[in-house]
Every structure is written in C-alpha cells, then in structure tokens.
Amino acid sequence: MTKRSESIAERYRRLARETAGRGAIDAALRALDMLLGGVFLLLSLPLTLPIALAIVVTSGPPLFYRGERVGRGGRIFTMLKFRTLRRGAEARLGPYLGPELVVRTQAETTRIGAWLRATQLDEVPQLLNVLRGDMSLVGPRPIRPRFFEELAADLPGYWQRLVVRPGLTGFAQVRKGYETSMAEKLAHDLEYIADRSVRLYLRTLVATGWRVFNQFLRGLTRT
Q1: pLDDT (mean) for 188-206
Q2: Is 199 helix (H, G, I), strand (E, B) or coil?
C-alpha cells in the first residue's frame, strides 16, 4: 500500500510546526497579548454594546461573523467579527479573491456594516480570539483555509506565516495598508516574524492605534 503524499498545505504546516521558535520572546508576547487584550476588551465595552444592539435591530441575527482561519502551526480556528454583510453573503462571496472579492463585498455590505468597516470596529470581537490563544494582537493577518494552499504554492516562504499566531493587526497593514499585493504583504509579514520583539510589537500597536483613530474620525464624518 503506497503512502499518501503530502499536499502543499500539509507540508507547509509540518514545516511550521518543526521550525525552531524563539521561546522567550514568544512567551513575552503572549503575556502582553493576555494583559493588553483584556484591557482593550474592557475599554471597548461602551462601544461594543451599542454596536451589537444596532446590528440586531437593523439587520437581525446573527450578531457575529464566524469564519474558519488557519492559525499557528496550521491549526484551524473560528475567527470572530461583528457581522457587516447581509445574511448569506459568505456563501455568495466564497469563490472570489482579490479585487473582485472587494467589489462584491461592497455590494453585500449593510449600512451599519460599512461604518464598522470604515472605523475598523468590526474587528473588536477578535480580542476574544486573542484571549483564547487563537490569535495575537500583532502578527500576519489570518487567512481562509481554502486560499492557504493556493497562496502557498505561488509564494515561496508563505508557510513561515504559520510559525507565529495570526494577528489582529500586522506589520503589513501598518506599512502598506490593504491595497497591497499578497507578495508585498508576505515580505512585511516575514520581516516581522524574523525581527519580532517586544519593542516591535509595541511600535506596531501604537502605529495601528493612530491609524484606527484617524479611520474612526473619517468614519464619523461619513455618517
């Protein structure tokens, strides 16, 4: 009986699990995730409770979007966000990626969802993922399992994103934003993974906070 050959995704997940980590740094970053994630979650409550009510009143349940993502070492987890799309949109958008996905997503976005996306408040529930250990506050943004193998086949080194937990924010988002190619985002993600430290982690959080604050102000002017 012949042994089943590994798929590209399986091979890269194995490589990520076998790659030597940086134990002391990763432990320190995890401690910061727990401390800061808990603080941010408590501070967000005055905003998140009215947001939850507004979503349910204007478009009904469910309150959260729950999507499968590839985590550290290839482990699949359920990522949370406030729902910003019409019900059933995930199934309709499933086959698309890249610019076409962006256009189709805009057409599926609810009115309050557009505001949540503009202010990035839809990401707040991911603080629960951080506290559960699925994610970090800083790291490569999580990706859907169905796209992992495709991107891993096209981009050398893509598997190295799995060495760390995916992040609520990332080096790529701070540096280049969301209109950057996947290859450019990967280069910034790999730079963060290689150079990760408490100082770089905190610098990325501060830069993200400033960016989110500005987007929140711009989002308020659109309402």
Answers
A1: 91
A2: helix
